[in-house]
Design a protein that fits this description.
With 452 residues, the protein is α+β, with helices and mostly antiparallel strands. It is built from eight helices and 29 strands. It folds into two domains: 290 residues, 2,3-Dihydroxybiphenyl 1,2-Dioxygenase, domain 1; 143 residues, Beta Barrel (Lipocalin), CATH 2.40.128. The strands form four sheets. Strands 19-20-21-22-23-24-25-26-27-29 form a ten-stranded antiparallel beta barrel. The chain has an eight-stranded mixed β-sheet with strand order 2-3-4-1-15-18-17-16, covered by helices on one side. Strands 6, 7, 8, 9, 10, 11, 12 and 13 form an eight-stranded mixed β-sheet that branches.
Length: 452
Amino acid sequence: MLTSKVQLRKEFLKNISIYIQIVTLSFALPRAVSAQSASMQPNNASSNFTPYVWAIEHGVANVQRAIAFYTNALGFEVEENNCCAPAKVLRNGAVRLLLSRSEAKPSAVNAAYTHLNMRVGDLSVAVAAVRQNGGAVENDAPQDFALGKAVTIHDPFGNSINLLDIASDNKTADSKPAVFNIGVVGENLEKEEAFFTALGFQIYSREYLPDLPLQRHGAAALVLHGGAKTPAKSGRRNGTIILGTADLSTALPALKTRGVKITSPNAGGVVAFNDPAGNPLKLMQLEAAMLTAPNATNGSAKNNAAAESAQSGFEQFKKLDGQWIGRSTKGWEETITFKTIAKGSVVVENSFDAHPNETMMTMFHLDGSRLLLTHYCVAGSQPRLAATAFDDAGRTVTFTFLDATNLPSRDKGHMDKAVFRFADDNTFSSQWTWYQEGKESWMEEIKYERKK
């Protein structure tokens, strides 16, 4: 009998090679067999409506810290998308990840749950990145399965993810992690099957029971599992599957006709409901352009936009050349200087008075489409931060922790986040956070004026 999530995951890993074959085969099917799946366009006629698998949502206690974890450790990228505010939207391939602030406790170890499965290039590299960025590793020894090895990890807030190293993949050790599918673990597989087929999903094959893969309809395939000992509890942390439709007014009656019990009424184009095991789902009205998998052109445009934001942010720092007087909200003052060096490729900030008789340095530079800073701190470490948000038309730049040298553990005290706000050419402010033993605290804000 399965008594915990660990055992559930072991059972899942026994059959993961099946899933890989399934996904591979599903993309090789002739177009005539599954034209709808190939185009991945939702059909919103009430008689044959099938929702589009668009995203998974994770509740986290600190959204900015979660963004840093998923972008630095698992290859997600921040998407400039206000569809789901106040949640932040990240993307890995075609799959979005919504990060919403939540103080919910993690779910029980033997309860139903929903989770991501991700392919990685090398487990040791991926696990190191997870730990470096504040995640936890459930099983230190990778578990063997037919096509490779697997490890279960948790983000800094307890959300579960399986990392898969597939031996047959054409990859290198530093291959970017990629979402493979979304797993749904319930108490009773037959009830899960009845629920998802009523929604409009089709079974790919019954040859692989007790695991039941569904035909992919949207950004990721769903795979159903039984074996949970208790249902998912409301108010506990669990992945929420986000389904999309271009016409909620048509989709909502279709859901009700199929016996779906709506737990939260239509509010802002979103309705909520649960599967038979209590796993949460949402159906959202989205623009038609969001209900297609991103292609190479879209990815290229996104990369270009990211590069433009980074370049624009870097230009803001280059404009700071000169001497500045800073006044903190705690009353102390300091003098800093900015200088652009190395043929315009690096901006160097020197701080002289923040700590008596000590000088600190921060260096800003571009790395492809990223804007990075390295802070040479009086604490003796050298944290490296990456710009993860450009707000207010690029006049507010937020940096979050990437990695560090001379920092044996992320839990050792260090500067972890920084926000720079540019008011005009002669005024700006900065505010940093201090991170230690799993807790992040904001330090005082410092407002700077150009020295005349």
